[in-house]
Amino acid sequence: MIKISKNVLLSKHSNYRIGGKAKYFFEAKTVKEIKDAILWAKANKQKVFILGGGTNLLFSDKGYNGLVLKVSINHLKAKGERIFVGAGVSIEDLLKFSAQKKLSGLEWAGGLPGALGGAIRGNAGAFKGETKDNIESVESFNIKTLEVEICKNKACQFSYRTSFFKKKDGEFIITAATIKLKKGNTKQIQALIDDKIKFRKAKHPLEFPNSGSVFKNTPLSQVLKEKTLEYKEGVRQASFNLRGTTVPVKNDPFPVIPTAFLISAAGLKGTKSGGAMISTKHPNFIINVSGAKATDILALIKLIKVTLKRKFGLKVEEEVQIVGY
């Protein structure tokens, strides 16, 4: 019999250190506990929010009026060139394990926060790598049928910062995955991981509570489709003119317009709302500098969206998940 907690402060489960109380809270360490929690929620007519590492979300100041179910399935096992890993395992621990086992392919994720389940759901990526690149299959719990299902990589419908599981939000709970890597050298693997961690520390405002990049970058193909770009067909460009501003293009891992550049070019770096601020170190980070509320973060999100639409004609989309509104 599982024990459901009441009135749990969500700010303790969020990288932002923001959020009111969850009406109900449970941390599941097995698939059976997930099933029991879902059955409890159904019996008690409670909505459910699935929580992973809490690194890419913003909880409401009013909390969550339902059950917050934290997935903490933390097994890690290697066999040959494959790693069998629970959804609750942190990316940091997964990388340490892969280096120890001399398995290469995840080095791009050095310094990536959060747990594997969230990385799969949002197809997290950096340094020209994406979570999908090494996923062989994903195990998930079907909330409707109460059965465990296995999805091969193609069935996961991975694309830029999304997946089948994100598209079907509230229908499946990622519980584990099989990751296919290749043999490598521990020292070389660790050196590449450390290099990415060093870069993040130098470029990102990690000294403040944050949720990582607040907005997705804009795929160049989307801008071309909207015909807001001066573009010569057949010519690849490292930058282009967008409404009088020279804008760079980077690979992420395909050509995208960096939202951080747009925010900076719009003169929004350092803008504050209450205890929140648009970072001067990396403008796509909105940081909690002094006891910020969720409403402070939301005010800056709205300001950025309105400003970039007006100045560049671009509609940027949030990467951070907003919960409780």
Can you walk me through this structure?
- This protein is α+β, with helices and mostly antiparallel strands and 325 residues long.
- It has three domains: 5-71, Uridine Diphospho-n-acetylenolpyruvylglucosamine Reductase, domain 2 (2-Layer Sandwich), CATH 3.30.43.10; 76-201, 2-Layer Sandwich (Uridine Diphospho-n-acetylenolpyruvylglucosamine Reductase, domain 3), CATH 3.30.465.10; 205-323, UDP-N-acetylenolpyruvoylglucosamine reductase, C-terminal domain (Uridine Diphospho-n-acetylenolpyruvylglucosamine Reductase, domain 1), CATH 3.90.78.
- It contains eight helices and 23 strands.
- It has helices at residues 31-43, 91-100, 116-121, 164-167, 186-203, 220-226, 259-265, 294-312, and strands at residues 5-9, 21-28, 48-51, 57-59, 64-71, 76-79, 82-86, 103-104, 125-126, 129-130, 135-142, 147-152, 172-180, 182-183, 218-219, 239-242, 245-248, 250-251, 255-257, 272-273, 276-278, 286-288, 321-323.
- The strands form eight sheets. It has a five-stranded antiparallel sheet with strand order 6-7-13-11-12. It has a four-stranded mixed sheet with strand order 1-2-5-3, covered by helices on one side. It has a three-stranded antiparallel sheet with strand order 15-19-18.
- Strand 18 and strand 19 form a beta hairpin.
- Helix 2 (91-100) packs antiparallel against helix 5.
- It is globular.
- The model is unreliable at 231-235 (pLDDT under 50).
